[in-house]
Design a protein that fits this description.
The protein is of the alpha/beta class. Strands 4-1-12-13-14 form a five-stranded parallel sheet. It has a four-stranded antiparallel sheet with strand order 8-9-11-10. The chain is built from nine helices and 14 strands. It is globular. It folds into two domains: 2-106 and 184-267, HAD superfamily/HAD-like (Rossmann fold, 3-Layer(aba) Sandwich), CATH 3.40.50.1000; 114-182, Glucose permease domain IIB (Gyrase A, domain 2). Strand 10 (169-174) and strand 11 (177-182) form a beta hairpin. The chain has helices spanning 42-54, 65-68, 99-112, 116-126, 156-164, 187-198, 213-218, 228-234, 249-267; strands at residues 2-5, 26-32, 35-41, 56-59, 82-85, 90-93, 96-97, 132-138, 142-147, 169-174, 177-182, 203-206, 221-224, 241-242. Keywords: Hydrolase. Residues 2-218 form the Sucrose phosphatase-like domain.
Length: 268
C-alpha cells in the first residue's frame, strides 16, 4: 500500500495553523533560519514512524525541493523512498529527482498549456498590486503569490478560475498564498507514476486543498482535514472522508484510520 500525503495543513502544521494544543505535545519537524517552523503531535509522529516501516509512505507537497528539504523530521526516523514535490512536477527517488518524470511533465506542459508569462499577465490585470506581497515562479512550472488576504475581493477566486479556463491552468488559495498551476502538473499524475514504479497495488491519500484533489481521486481511499479548501468547497464528498477534528489533530485522525487498517490486515 502507498500512503500519499500532503504536508502543510494535512500532516504538519505551523503555529498559526495548528489550533490549540499543549506545547509539550508537539514534535518539531521543520527548521528555517534557526527557528522551528512546523510541527506534528507526538502521537501522530509515532504512528507515522510505525506506518513508514509497514507501507510505502510518499510525501506529496506543492513545496519545491529546497523547501521540502527543510523538513528534517521526515528524514530522521521516517522511511520514504519516494517523494513528490513541486505539486507533482518532480518525483524524488532516494532524495534525487527522477529526470524521466520531470522531462515528461515539462514536455506535456509546453504542448498543452498556455505560456506562463501569459497567465501571469492575466493575473496581474485582475489583482491589484497593493494586494500582493511577493510572487515567485517555482521550478519554472507554477506561480506562488503571497497576498494580503484581507484586501482580496470576495469573488476573486471564482473570477480567476473562470479567467484561466481554456488556457490549461488552474488556481488555489491556501492561507496567504495563491497558486497558479498548469493543469498537467498534478499530484494525482505523480502518484500514479510512483504506483507504477513501486508495483504497489493500492493508494491511501490525504490532503486539504484543491491541489490535492487529483491525488485523492486516484486513490482507493482518501481523507481530508475538516478545514482547508476541500472542506469549504464540499463539506461532504462521496469519495473523500473528512476528519472529525481540525487543525493539527486532523493529522492524528488520518493516521489513526491507517493504523486501524494495519491492525485489520495483520489479523487477516
Amino acid at each position: 500500500m502507498i500512503f500519499a500525503c500532503d504536508l502543510d495543513q494535512t500532516l504538519i502544521y505551523s503555529r498559526n495553523s495548528m489550533g490549540l494544543v499543549d506545547a509539550d505535545d508537539l514534535v518539531p519537524v521543520e527548521s528555517n533560519d534557526g527557528e522551528y517552523r512546523s510541527f506534528m503531535t507526538r502521537a501522530a509522529y509515532s504512528n507515522l514512524q510505525y506506518l513508514s516501516e509497514q507501507i510505502l509512505f510518499v510525501p506529496a507537497t506543492t513545496r519545491i525541493y529546497e523547501q521540502y528539504e527543510r523538513i528534517f523530521g521526515l528524514r530522521e526516523g521516517i522511511q520514504s523512498k519516494y517523494a513528490i514535490v513541486s505539486n507533482g512536477g518532480k518525483v524524488l527517488i532516494d532524495g534525487r529527482p527522477d529526470r524521466v518524470w520531470e522531462d515528461q511533465v515539462r514536455r506535456t506542459v509546453r504542448t498543452n498549456c498556455a505560456p506562463s508569462t501569459e497567465i501571469k499577465s492575466k493575473f496581474d490585470r485582475l489583482v491589484a498590486k497593493d494586494c500582493i506581497i511577493k510572487d515567485a515562479y517555482c521550478d519554472d512550472l507554477f506561480y506562488s503569490v503571497i497576498v494580503k488576504r484581507d484586501l482580496l475581493p470576495p469573488d476573486l477566486m471564482p473570477e480567476l478560475e473562470s479567467l484561466l479556463q481554456g488556457h490549461g491552468w488552474n488556481c488555489s488559495l491556501q492561507g496567504r498564498k495563491i497558486y497558479l498551476v498548469p493543469d498537467h502538473v498534478t499530484k494525482g499524475a505523480a502518484v500514479r507514476y510512483v504506483k507504477e514504479l513501486s508495483g504497489e497495488q493500492s493508494v491511501f491519500a490525504a490532503g486539504d486543498s484543491l491541489l490535492d484533489e487529483s491525488m485523492l481521486l486516484v486513490a482507493d481511499e482518501a481523507m481530508a482535514p475538516n478545514h482547508g479548501e476541500l472542506y469549504r468547497k464540499y463539506g461532504s464528498h462521496d469519495r473523500i472522508r473528512f476528519t472529525e477534528r481540525s487543525g493539527i489533530r486532523a493529522s492524528e485522525d488520518i493516521l489513526d484510520v491507517l493504523m486501524n487498517r494495519m491492525e485489520v490486515r495483520n489479523v487477516l
